[in-house]
Amino acid sequence: MVPHSSPRNLRRVVVGLTAALLLVSACGTADESAELPDTGFEGDSGAGAAFPVTIEHQYGETEITEPPQRIVTLGINDHDPLLALGVTPMAVHPWVGLDSVGPWAADALGDAEPAVLPGNSDPTPEEVLALAPDLILAVTYSMDEATYDALSELVPTVVRSADHADYAIPWQDHTEVIGDAVGKPDEAAALIEETETLLADTATEHPELAGRTGAALLPNPDGGYWPFTDLDARGQFMTAMGLRLPDELAELDDGAFYIDLSAERMDLLESDVLVILDQGGSEEAAQDDAVFQALDVVERDDVIWLDTEYLGLAMAHNTVLSIPYTIDELLPLIVEKVG
């Protein structure tokens, strides 16, 4: 399950996975001759010289002995850096709300049509293994160790680093590990440098944002809000643009990727700008919330409501492909409010 719908759902495990894996193991591997999207490396990538590569992660290490040709991305945005590196996965597992990759990745995807594992559920092992992958990328995915053990016995599987929580890997580290997995560390480093330069140059071009207060947040359906911290992609984007959480709100940061702000402490949202990800009806509900409407930031109309179809999802992706899109589409709205 993706982290966009609700932070409480982030650690949901795959139901019935162990039994399903036993069934797959008993049946052997999938038919590798099955007709599947013609994906993999484009032409002579030169990546072969990088192999074998060994990637350390939360469950140990994974060795990839040769350039993978049949990559399945389970991580909700693992396909973005992969596509940016010129490598097309044979199957993707996109965020809820996306039928495939986001519009920010459309050019990199080109005419390729990878299989899509629906984002509103966790794919079963049968679904994954039936694609006969030779590499599974699950860096931005919450995979329990039993699932990893079962999958990695059949296919090299790369999960997140032990240095980060689920869905909290910085985009730089994310790009780096994907680059290592496909034998393109130098190209990944170049993408990181290019994107960091873009962020820095953009922040420099907008000194009016430096030191101003703001938050990206998600409404809590039970009341209150979930402002994102720097551990979250949305919080990272705000910080990169020079914005910071209001001091009293930041004091509630206990190291998680969001702050569970009760309705009673909604006053802590007072800031120069709020970016709120609307989850179907959230904005309408806020219009009926007298406490929320009484906030100065609301009375000044310095609240940006984002639908989660594209722009909210782009902000949450925070990849080398989505960051330029977010800058182009969201930043002008923030500047208009804060400037």
TrEMBL record:
GO cellular component, one term: outer membrane-bounded periplasmic space
GO biological process: one example: iron coordination entity transport
Short name of any one Pfam family annotated for the protein: Peripla_BP_2
Domain Fe/B12 periplasmic-binding: 70-338
UniProt keywords, alphabetically: Signal, Transport
Primary localisation category: other
Localization, UniProt: Cell envelope
Entry-linked InterPro entries: ABC_transptr_periplasmic_BD, Bact_iron-sidero_bind
Domain of life: Bacteria
Signal sequence residues: 1-30
PROSITE patterns, sorted: FE_B12_PBP (PS50983)
Protein family: Belongs to the bacterial solute-binding protein 8 family.
Full protein name: ABC-type Fe3+-hydroxamate transport system, periplasmic component
